[in-house]
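Can anyone check this?
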Amino acid sequence: MKQRQVVVVGAGAVGLATAWRVQQRFPDAVVTVVEKEAAVAKHQTGNNSGVLHCGLAYRPGSAKARLAVRGIAQMVEFCREHGIPHDVCGKLVVAAREEQVPRLEALRERGAQNGLQGLELLDPPRMREREPHVSGVRALLVPGEGIVDYEKVCGTLARLIGESGGRVVCGAAVRAFHRDGAGWRVAAGTHELPADVLITCGGLQADRLARLAGERPEVSIVPFRGDYYKLRAGREHLVNHLIYPVADPQFPFLGVHFTRMIRGGIECGPNAVLALKREGYGRTDFNLRDAAAAMSFPGLWRFLGRHTRMCASELRRAFSQRLFCEALQTLVPEVREQDIEPAGAGVRAQAMRPDGYLVEDFDVIQRANAIHVLNAPSPAATACLAIGEEIASRLDQ
């Protein structure tokens, strides 16, 4: 009997986890992962803050909520089994002002609906038992959240794929997808790979890969860069674990926060500004094709019109360490401008609709011989094993 050939495009957390789950479900399949970069986890997965998200804020019943809750349990077990550094240290979500408390209570209710355990509202004295330097009127303790080394997660997944008879081919940018009977031929780098099933997990290039395979998705990827700072040595004692603000429901992102890193140190951020290069991590990085794609997409202009003040504020903060520090001071007032220093950036691949609204949930296109992951921003890294499991199960269909 002919072995099923499966090609997965993209060696971030979702692509690697999907390839591994396909191997587990179909041990006789020949699985190949192709990645354009020279190593795995070079974009979203390797440039985030390493948080394990447990499903607090996601709409009950959504794929994000369901897969985050299942995924964090799977990720913690995977890390324990393979000796990957991680810590379920918990986090505080802090209401800085009284008018934010109802949103905090709504978050607790939403988390409870998603099945989270141990959620607790804390008054200021109890907040400061956990985080002595935090400021606010109330906080939500989320004990199930944590931190992990996602690069090691991906390295381990790549090793397991190889040990199970598959392979991860780096330095192999996709050039074309060709129909080949009921399947495909994938031109990637110098390789021509047969595929009975094609799975694309392209992150920042997700919409382009889907279009290359003949799809016509309505949504487009709009890249948002997030800048990070870190606390300087000697001031890291100001933060013990994870400290987040109460998210503004009018703002599509979480706001700047503090994260204790699994490799040491405290990271602060990110903000969120439009990136003019999909894989551009510097403030002035520019790519003509990427910028033209964003600027010609009507959804972006509708988004900017809807969130003009917020976008302007984020842009100013991107070029001002003082303004960035002021945002951090709403959570930890003792942080001074001289206490923080730049610490890199990440770019979030966010699918946006033509009406200017962000695609809030994970978004996947399924065909008889292809699956395309169109939208998988945070918490996709946390949930990658559950996402991969679900995609693998679709191959039965």
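Reply from J.R.: I decoded it. The longest strand covers residues 340-352.
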